[in-house]
Amino acid sequence: MMAGEPDRTEKITVNLGPVDLGRIDLLVQEGHFTNRTDFIRTAVRNQLTASAPAIEHTVARRTLVLGTQHFSRRELEAMRDRGEQVHIRVLGLATVADDVTPELALATIASVEVLGAFRASRAVKSALGSRIV
């Protein structure tokens, strides 16, 4: 886990019809939301809250780490020295430290399944390409 790291956001694109967009703009104009983004974030959070039981069940069933998981060079070197490999399975954010070499990643990371964001150097992502689900 990456304690103390501020939450980062990922940018997504949403296409909406003109009527829905007009409704959002009306709510913004009337002061119910500060802007379109505020409305969309609130709507997403409300839907995720309503879907929480289904999400929790799926996380448990699929043995996913919920939240943030970080892999440091030291941690991966210790795994390599023990002859171990990790299957990264995260719902949230998974990161591999910038000083991890592609060779170390290949020796220690058997697979990567991230529902959310996976951050690693371009070289590590390229080396793990066939192992990223």
From TrEMBL:
Pfam families from the entry? Answer: RHH_8 (PF17723)
**PANTHER family assigned to the protein according to its UniProt record, in alphabetical order:** BLL4998 PROTEIN (PTHR36215)
What name does the UniProt record give this protein? CopG family transcriptional regulator
